[in-house]
Specification:
heterodimer, A: about 110 residues, two-stranded antiparallel ribbon, elongated, B: mainly alpha
């Protein structure tokens, strides 16, 4: 049993980073969640969650070069750490186990 | 409402907030270029402020002490020596009191946390200024006329 299961939003962010790959920064992560998760997201909320995930060692980040279309501001690229992958798998296992005990829904 | 670039006020807010979280400010600008909605941008900015996403980097409080310390020390010492006329309308030349009030209101709505730095800076400045006055109470000023007065009032 993991000490901390991920929230649905944290899990979506981790999965979005894994789907995007090396180019995972704020904007593509938000777009990925909006496209596949079907929900509108606030970029600030993504950064708040990412900061928390990084503090817990589930993701790591690095700054890219500043670009003119972003007003000369750098991108912050995120990658999922082995601990993050383990956390996502454990959360998925817990969710699947919970679903198994649910009677058939109409 | 469709815009090709953010309003000057939104750009200014983004510039100020970029000091705290540069990647988020860049992301907001990049996403705005695609969506071109001022309403969306302001919504994102306000929600980011409410969520504290722009508070990842903070200036150390100690940085605020240096400019205030000599000012307060000067004020404390000048009150004991010769009374001076003080202009309370506005501390910034060319900007009226009303302008400063509007600026204060804008700060309160955009980055209310800044008042903690101002209050902390003023309180620390008073403490440091008072300490400086007491440390110098036995030393005469270079001016012959002020020296005895300082000794008289501070000893």
């Amino acid at each position: 049993m993991p000490r901390h299961l991920l929230t649905d939003f944290e899990l979506m962010i981790l999965l979005a980073i894994l789907r995007i790959g090396e180019e995972a920064y704020g904007v593509p992560i938000a777009e990925e969640i909006e496209r596949t998760g079907g929900r509108r997201v606030v970029l600030g909320a993504i950064y708040t969650a990412l900061d928390r995930l990084e503090r817990n060692g589930l993701v790591s980040s690095s700054l890219g070069d500043p670009t003119p279309e972003r007003g000369g501001r750098a991108k912050r690229f995120f990658t999922v750490t082995p601990q993050g992958i383990r956390g996502a798998k454990e959360t998925q296992r817990a969710l699947v186990a919970l679903w198994k005990g649910v009677p058939e829904l109409r | 409402m469709k815009r090709t670039r953010p309003s000057s006020l939104a750009r200014w807010v983004l510039r100020v907030l970029a000091d705290r979280n540069e990647p988020l400010a860049g992301d907001l600008l990049e996403a705005f270029q695609r969506r071109q909605s001022a309403l969306w941008l302001w919504g994102q900015l306000l929600l980011a402020l409410l969520l504290g996403s722009f508070q990842s980097k903070r200036a150390p409080v100690a940085l605020n002490l240096t400019p205030i310390d000599p000012v307060v020390a000067e004020w404390l010492m000048s009150r004991k020596l010769t009374p001076r006329r003080v202009n309370l309308s506005s501390p910034v030349e060319g900007v009226g009191g009303l302008g400063m009030m509007l600026f204060g209101l804008l700060l309160s709505s955009v980055v209310p946390d800044v008042w903690w730095f101002v209050a902390g800076g003023i309180a620390s400045g008073i403490v440091l200024g008072t300490a400086k006055v007491y440390m110098r109470r036995n030393h005469a000023l270079p001016d012959e006329r002020d020296g005895p007065l300082v000794r008289h009032y501070f000893t």
